[in-house]
Amino acid sequence: xxxxxxxxxxxxxxxxxxxxxxxxxxxxxxxxxxxxxxxxxxxxxxxxxxxxxxxxxxxxxxxxxxxxxxxxxxxxxxxxxxxxxxxxxxxxxxxxxxxxxxxxxxxxxxxxxxxxxxxxxxxxxxxxxxxxxxxxxxxxxxxxxxxxxxxxxxxxxxxxxxxxxxxxxxxxxxxxxxxxxxxxxxxxxxxxxxxxxxxxxxxxxxxxxxx
Length: 211
Description:
By secondary structure, the chain is mainly beta. The protein is about 10% helix and about 50% strand. It has one helix at about 1-15; strands at about 25-30, 40, 40-45, 50-55, 65-70, 80-85, 90-95, 100-105, 110, 115-120, 120-130, 135-140, 150-155, 160-170, 175-180, 185-195, 200-205, 205-210. The longest helix is centred in the N-terminal third of the chain and has 16 residues, at about 1-15.
């Protein structure tokens, strides 16, 4: 028993005498729209718009190598090499085309959070012939991840829209030419696109139709 106690005391003494292992700098990372807007763990942009990924290292050291990994939904991740500025900060401007996550690494230390950019498809609605009720819809998004079923809607109150017709988008250009019956008079119409795992739901701008 005395021998075991002596060994235990010796082990504790060695552990206390051992020098502390220095930890690497902590890495903070945020995402937002370019400019002076707010940065956070998420941001939402329209398809084709830019986002700004910003970060810093706690040591504040300049010229430190940073690896930023860009991970699009169901896509191939890629890594961008950056360096910190005089204040230990870094930034990267990116144009995501689908829901995308971002991480940063300095040496063996990775950012604690993975900010995300959420994307809304860009929809367009054009009146081909108001008298014949003919319209054309176009959508900008990745064809394999966005809903190909969209809804043609008309406004029935200041806050409520009613579905008029379900429209099937065709081809890789995500467009459709369709006809729809509307009540006579001035009607405000739009296209509604449902949410999918890669994209948020969204609508086109409304179009005023007079019949």
